[in-house]
Amino acid sequence: MKNCSPGLQELLLSMLELNPYFRSSIKECLNFEIFDAIRVRDLEEDAPWKIHLDVDQEDAFNYDNVD
User: Fold this and answer.
1) Where are the domains of the chain?
2) Cα 31 to Cα 36: distance, rounded to the nearest angstrom
3) CB burial class (10 A; 0-12, 13-18, 19+) of residue 24?
4) Which of 14, 25, 31, 52 has the lowest tally of Cβ within 10 angstroms?
């Protein structure tokens, strides 16, 4: 990632966070300044539903037993 801009690095790292409690939501990601030049806030709207993944379940990962 050394060739990526600092803004893009920050965005990618926030999206790739394994723990869903610390991972940025889509709404949070869209607020990164990297999108400021292309966004049209008047056209933005919330999604009608949320996608739930198995990895996002509360007991999906045992953080106490990581090697």
Assistant:
1) 6-65
2) 8
3) middle
4) 52
Tokens (6 digits) for 40: 């049209």
Q: What is the largest CA-CA distance in the chain?
A: 47
List pLDDT tens digits, range 32-49. Answer: 999 999 989 899 888 888
Residue 52, pLDDT score? 76
Neighbours of 11 (CB within 10 A): 20
